[in-house]
Write a structure and sequence with these properties.
The protein is an alpha/beta fold. It folds into three domains: about 90 residues, 3-Layer(aba) Sandwich (Rossmann fold); about 190 residues, Mur-like, catalytic domain (UDP-N-acetylmuramoyl-L-alanine:D-glutamate ligase, 3-Layer(aba) Sandwich); about 130 residues, Protein-Tyrosine Phosphatase, Chain A (Alpha-Beta Complex). The chain is built from 16 helices and 16 strands.
Length: about 425
């Protein structure tokens, strides 16, 4: 028997049909784990499967189905595992028609086989930076850490590597999304962080109440022996939804004055990361050493370079209104803002004072033009172009030495790009082409 008991227990039995929805990294990892459990796996994706995907999936002997999802695809399934981002509002009616098979997220599926300590981080913004900081703090303490979940490697992939004989980590640091948490039942992190909470993903959740409830599930299975960490602005939320774990609150501070990361939002991220790492034995000195060496992540307020005296800043990871707020607050020079894409909800009007203070003009591009123009009319000069390249050219023509061009879209990228990384890479390319 393996260390995790994969062959002896799990949500499916050998020969059961499991349906995975979504052919991305998470879906493929879930399919691999389900096959290891002995299930027959049907993997659905609305898009045609790429040659690269077919190559990766071939050893798993999956049943692959592309195109629109239908109730019959789920008929007879013992388990359904939707990938993050598959809207429950779309999936639920299909499952009802198919007889309501059990439904779990990939996170929940894999967590059933975990014996290591888990630090889980969620929130509207700052998740990726915070989990990366926590992992860096563990490494500075000489500990082996797995960093994954909604960032990089799915938890299922870690479980399979451990099953194959890889050494265990001292701690698992997981970024978790509302979509992953929404379909959890027993997920139990010993340290759980809710960084912040503001309207987001309202294009895929029914409403803000559903989004909030999904985020709060990160604490659902904690005990008094565990630690819950929240941003101090969430104090009233915690009072309305009492938590069983020991609760700590964090705020931006000056604990790590030698850190490379700039801005109050990053001061808050570092404080949250330290409280989480400290709960599992990392010292303040070890955390400080990690913050001194920790640079901004790609596409997160990343300074691309200064061309013709104008600083180009790539914040393509800033897909929410709150991320845009943090980006604006971090500016130390006049700037031209590039924004646009698939709007996920949030209070754009609340940014008006910051726009007046920090931004010379807004160059909109791509989707959601109507949201920005309505919210920011009579606030700052605005233009719109069909694509990012035209918007960058417009901002470049207007910018002067000593100013900045900031890409902080406050939207997802799926109107024109595969993901935020592709959007950020395109911005970098355009910046480097400055005459």
């Amino acid at each position: 028997m393996s260390r995790y008991g994969i062959l002896s227990h799990g949500p499916v039995q050998a020969g059961d049909l499991a349906v995975v929805v979504g052919g991305g990294v998470s879906g493929l990892a879930a399919a691999a784990l389900l096959r290891r459990l002995g299930a027959r796996v049907r993997l659905l994706d609305k898009k045609p499967f790429s040659r690269d995907f077919m190559h990766k999936a071939a050893p798993l002997e999956l049943e692959l189905v592309s195109g629109a999802h239908l109730p019959e695809h789920f008929q007879g399934a013992a388990l359904v595992v939707p990938s993050p981002g598959v809207p429950w509002t779309v999936l639920e009616p299909l499952l009802i028609q198919a007889g309501n098979p059990a439904c779990l997220s990939e996170l929940e599926l894999a967590a059933a086989f975990v014996s290591e300590k888990i630090i889980a981080v969620t929130g509207t913004s700052g998740k990726t930076t915070t989990v990366s900081l926590i992992a860096a703090m563990f490494k500075a303490a000489g500990k082996k850490v797995f960093l994954g979940g909604n960032i990089g490697t799915p938890l299922s992939a870690y479980i399979l590597e451990r099953e194959a004989g890889a050494p265990p980590a001292d701690a698992l640091v997981l970024e978790v999304s509302s979509f992953q948490l929404q379909l959890t039942r027993a997920f139990h992190p010993q340290v759980a962080l809710l960084l912040n909470l503001s309207p987001n993903h309202l294009d895929q959740h029914k409403d803000f109440a559903e989004y909030e409830a999904a985020k709060l599930r990160i604490f659902a299975n904690q005990t008094p022996a565990d630690t819950a960490i929240l941003g101090e602005e969430l104090f009233s939320l915690a009072q309305r939804h009492p938590l069983r774990a020991r609760v700590e609150y964090f705020a931006a501070g000056r604990r790590f004055p030698q850190a490379q990361l700039q801005g109050r939002h990053n001061q808050a991220n570092m404080e949250a990361a330290f409280l989480a790492a400290r709960a599992l034995g990392v010292t303040e000195a070890q955390a400080a050493a990690a913050t001194r060496d920790f640079a901004a992540l790609p596409h997160r307020l990343e300074k691309v370079g200064e061309y013709a005296g104008v600083l180009y800043i790539d914040d393509s990871k800033g897909t929410t209104v709150e991320a845009l707020r943090a980006a604006l607050q971090s500016l130390d020079r006049p700037a031209f803002l590039l924004a646009g894409g698939v709007f996920k909800g949030g209070d754009l009007e609340s940014l008006r004072p910051l726009l007046r203070e920090k931004i010379k003009a807004v160059a909109l591009f791509g989707g959601s033009r109507e949201h920005f123009e309505k919210a920011w009319q009579n606030t700052v000069a605005m233009s719109w172009d069909e694509n990012l390249e035209a918007a960058v050219c417009r901002a470049r023509d207007a910018a002067r030495p000593g100013e900045a061009i900031l890409l902080s879209p406050a939207t997802s990228s799926f109107d024109q790009y595969a993901d935020y990384k592709a959007r950020g890479d395109d911005f970098k390319r355009l910046a480097e082409q400055t005459p």
